[in-house]
């Protein structure tokens, strides 16, 4: 579903991704862990067209992100083609980023109506089902300010799912939550994983990675230090940097 080959990304003179190689299989829950500043968010942002890579190859579902390949030449995609690629990718951020002036239902209906041109009736029907799925059918008419952080994050997940993505990216979805609200969001993510969604999850929740993850990559300073099954990496880290990091978060 995702293939990165020697992906490089710099901001000015600062190289943030220094040759990332990884593959995410369909239906896999792929956990990305590592210290702050190691490039995890930047990598997710490259997948979702929020940043452009400087070198290497990055593809989603067999198609290069942002480019078309003809022979050995690359052509940048048109804006409409980029928009079409982005529709297949849902992203959930640490900060929930809901539209504050819209209800939960309005937030979930917005993109299908505005981006896909779906009818309001159809968008409402799907939004209601999705809010039910994340356990918020009784909250659909509440505004974000009337919801807890955990509830807002569940609305954000429902909103991303409303576009029927092939791939979901989670960037520390529980890091901004009070501890007692983390579990309800992880439960929704676990359900989603069980439904077969392909997910890349940046997280410090090692319990989730161990129980739900199919693969885990430890990143530090813009490189993949270590990769494997979450149980193997977490129980038996091979590199000093991985050991040092895990001793702080486990
Ligand atoms: P992580 O998510 O692992 O904490 P990030 O991908 O957010 O790491 O950041 C990696 C490095 O890239 C950091 O040093 C950060 O300051 C830098 N960085 C991220 N975005 C930008 C940007 N838009 N401009 C300049 N530097 C950036
Ligand atoms: Mg980050």
Automatic annotation (TrEMBL):
PROSITE patterns referenced in this protein's UniProt entry, alphabetically: ABC_TRANSPORTER_1, ABC_TRANSPORTER_2
Gene3D superfamilies assigned to the protein according to its UniProt record, in alphabetical order: P-loop containing nucleotide triphosphate hydrolases (3.40.50.300)
The EC number(s) this enzyme carries: 7.4.2.1
Domain ABC transporter: residue ranges: 2-246
GO molecular function, one term: ATP hydrolysis activity
Reaction(s) this enzyme catalyzes, per UniProt: a polar amino acid(out) + ATP + H2O = a polar amino acid(in) + ADP + phosphate + H(+)
InterPro entries, A to Z: AAA+_ATPase, ABC_ATPase_HisP-typ, ABC_transporter-like_ATP-bd, ABC_transporter-like_CS, MetN_ABC_transporter-like, P-loop_NTPase
Keyword Nucleotide-binding tagged: yes
Name of the featured protein: ABC-type polar-amino-acid transporter
Species assigned in the record: Streptomyces tardus
């Amino acid at each position: 579903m995702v293939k990165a080959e020697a992906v490089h990304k710099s901001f000015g003179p600062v190289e943030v991704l220094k040759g990332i190689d990884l593959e995410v299989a369909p239906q896999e829950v792929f956990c990305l862990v590592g210290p702050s500043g190691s490039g995890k968010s930047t990598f997710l942002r490259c997948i979702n067209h929020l940043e452009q890579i400087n070198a290497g190859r990055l593809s989603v579902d067999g198609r290069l992100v942002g480019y078309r390949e003809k022979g050995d030449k690359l052509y940048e995609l048109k804006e409409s083609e980029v928009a079409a690629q982005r529709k297949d990718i849902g992203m959930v951020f640490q900060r929930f980023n809901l539209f504050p002036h819209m209800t939960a239902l309005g937030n979930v209906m917005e993109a299908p109506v505005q981006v896909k041109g779906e009818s309001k009736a159809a968008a409402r029907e799907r939004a209601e089902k999705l809010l039910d799925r994340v356990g918020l059918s009784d909250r659909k008419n509440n505004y974000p300010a009337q919801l807890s952080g955990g509830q807002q994050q569940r609305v954000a997940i429902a909103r991303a799912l409303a576009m029927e993505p092939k791939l979901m990216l989670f960037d520390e979805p529980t890091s901004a939550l009070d501890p007692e609200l983390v579990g309800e969001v992880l439960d929704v993510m676990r359900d989603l994983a069980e439904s077969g969604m392909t997910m890349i999850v940046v997280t410090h929740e090692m319990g989730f990675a161990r129980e739900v993850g199919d693969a885990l990559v430890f990143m530090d300073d813009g490189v993949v230090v270590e990769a494997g099954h979450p149980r193997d990496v977490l129980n038996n880290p091979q590199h000093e940097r991985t050991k040092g990091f895990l001793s702080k978060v486990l």
